[in-house]
């Protein structure tokens, strides 16, 4: 086997999974280029706090240069302490709700993405929206972009999210369709008043027919200060710690029908739904500095196997998990680590590319479909019985 069996790897999408893969490939001595449709500001309106299970943190530790992993640890937040359940007047109902593993960590999505962009430099190209690709039998893959340019590599990885162009190439029978799940979420800067609402790993407030979920993102070290110390030169704006709140909007609410069209202020929607609730909860929502309303989308069936060639998928492009499971980012990071291991076997002459990607695909589909089912099961904690009955058995939902 020659070195030509694995030259350049093309990664479509600079999200958490795609960037983690880029770092793992660089560490393995494999040439990689990442193509991102968005601009180079480093921020995306894709949610706020996410949880990383121990497997996710271990994947980042194995993938990142030491200084960047130290920055991940420094800016992460605790997911320990009590998980509380209150009624809408903040009467304590339960003080030990099931939660994440003791060594799981909270991360701000935007902070993590900026860390992952660190050190990749010109390996990441922006404003490159994929329009199609050409896969030759046992030969290179060519990606075509909307600006008229193209790129050629020996393997192409679709890490381009739920609406993946690459997924439509390998599994065109799988469709992305709207779900009945609509969520309003917000980010409110932490004050002593609001921190008392979330003293531990999370708080759930059960009102008549609706649930408000609270999670704190309290940075171990403020991100811009941590970056200045641990990774000088990394672009990291100042970030306040905050409480993230989420409420599932009833499907018959007008905002649910118009989600994503910019017609609704999430704060006003939630305030209308929690009218009469405890003043601290209403003020938490009213004081948000960022909020949004979004409707989940789902794949209409489980992701099926596809003919193994030189094109594969990673993260949401293959397994769009419900945010209720809290496992989307961790699963994508695991995808990246395991895919790099298979590609390194190609680099070492131990496998052909198609064989390596077939082994990876089998693992990807098993873990990914399990993660989707876990997210669906977790959703039952937040939605009254019967409201998820119409979801496909292996439905995938988008995180807000």
Automatic annotation (TrEMBL):
Highest taxon of source: Bacteria
Residue ranges of domain FAD-binding in the record: 9-171, 288-373
UniProt keyword list: FAD, Flavoprotein, Monooxygenase, Oxidoreductase
Entries under InterPro entries matching the protein: FAD-bd, FAD/NAD-bd_sf
Molecular function GO terms recorded: monooxygenase activity
Protein name, entry field: FAD-dependent monooxygenase
The organism of origin for this protein: Actinoallomurus liliacearum
